[in-house]
Amino acid sequence: MSKLPGKTETIENVESPAFDPSKATEQVGAVVDQGVEQSKQAFSKLSSDAETTQKALESTFEMAKTTGNEVSLTMIAALRDNTEAGFTHLEALVAAKSLSECIELQTVFLHKQIEKSAEQARGLQAAMMRAGEDMSKPIKDAFEKVLKAA
After folding, report:
1. How far apart are CA 22 and CA 33, in angstroms?
2. Largest CA distance in the chain
3. Cβ atoms of residues 85 and 120 within 8 Å
4. Is the separation of the CB atoms in 127 and 74 below 8 Å?
5. Distance between CA atoms of 1 and 46, rounded to whole angstroms?
6. CA–CA separation, 75 vs 124, rounded Å?
7. Distance of CA 24 to the CA centre of its chain
């Protein structure tokens, strides 16, 4: 029987659990193995996510190049059409026989150019919208894939 200081109660036949080093070693080993396995899984997921992100960025850059070329070609085509129309109009003006004919040619030309410019603007806007959608698609797909996996 032993007395605790400052207490009036006594403790009798108290058994403390025996420390078994072999069980402790097994438990520590199990915890370490579990930690290593979790680390491997986390690294694998991180590596996979990084690879997915890299592929998405590569696709985005490639798509930006392709769609940028498409937009540039659309603009060049519009400039070429306008230049050809301008030269054709200039030839018609030079061939005009009177001032009234020049004014009529100029009026018709301006009317056609306004309509053509509106049509070209719509075409360029559509090309740029497609370009934006095409460029954002790889990143959007990768983001959705990560959200589904989480």
Report:
1. 16
2. 134
3. no
4. yes
5. 60
6. 7
7. 50
Contact 43, 100 (CB under 8 A): no
Encode pLDDT of 112-123 as tens digits.
999 999 999 999
Distances (CA, A) of 8 to 3, 4, 89: 7, 7, 118
Conformational region of residue 18, where left means phi above 0, alpha means psi within -120 to 50, and beta covers everything else: beta
The three-state DSSP-derived secondary structure of the chain is CEECCCCCCEECCCCCCCCCHHHHHHHHHHHHHHHHHHHHHHHHHHHHHHHHHHHHHHHHHHHHHHHHHHHHHHHHHHHHHHHHHHHHHHHHHHHCCCHHHHHHHHHHHHHHHHHHHHHHHHHHHHHHHHHHHHHHHHHHHHHHHHHHHC
Residue corresponding to tokens 């207490």? 7
Residue-wise pLDDT for 127-141, tens only, equals 889 888 888 887 788
CA of 127: how far to CAs of 66, 76, 78, 148, in Å? 12, 13, 13, 31
| The model's pTM | 0.56
